Amino acid sequence: MLQFASKHIQIVKTKRKAVYHRSLMYLQFNIHFTQKQIIISKSNLYEQQYEFNQIFDPQCDQEQIYLCVVNPIVTDALNGISSNLIIYGSQGSGKTYSLFGTIGSLFTLKQGLVSIESGIAIRMIHVNM
């Protein structure tokens, strides 16, 4: 019999440091972050709100994201609860970095270590070895 976690679905977002392209500068959108919301507005003409379970600051490291988001999913999976982790985002949004971290962190895994730059996939493998 399948078991489902009480948390069901969580949606989290990591904030990246702003990178602006010159061709987008004329749009002049205002972006405001709260702990669980992103609000995008343009003057008084437009406002769109997006809800999340949690939004992580750009200063947040891989370990914090792993402990808050991924570790509970891994624990549920190891306890027989059907679990799934989906990493989604546009090109260049940091999906590969979130999964694997830096290239240097892969070398530390070969030495049996996890560095602060190690991604969530590396941490899942290391923790459950």
What does this protein structure show overall?
- With 129 residues, this protein is α/β, with parallel strands linked by helices.
- The protein has 4 helices and 7 strands, in the order E-E-E-E-E-E-H-E-H-H-H.
- The protein has helices spanning 62-78, 95-100, 103-110, 120-127; strands spanning 3-4, 12-14, 30-33, 37-42, 46-51, 54-56, 81-82.
- The strands form 3 sheets. The chain has a 3-stranded antiparallel sheet, with no helix packed on it. A two-stranded parallel sheet has the order 1-7. It has a two-stranded parallel sheet with strand order 2-6.
- The chain is globular, with a radius of gyration of 18 Å.
- The two termini are 27 Å apart.
- The relative contact order is 0.15.
Shape field: globular
Residues in β-strands, percent: 15-25%
Helix run count: 4
Classification by helices and strands: alpha/beta
Share of helical residues: 25-40%
Average pLDDT reading: 76
Annotation, overall tally of beta strands: 7
| Major β-sheet strand ordering | 3-4-5
Q: Gyration radius, to the nearest Å?
A: 18 Å
End-to-end distance: 27 Å
Keywords: ATP-binding, Coiled coil, Microtubule, Motor protein, Nucleotide-binding
Family: Belongs to the TRAFAC class myosin-kinesin ATPase superfamily. Kinesin family.
GO molecular function: ATP binding; microtubule binding; microtubule motor activity
Organism: Paramecium tetraurelia
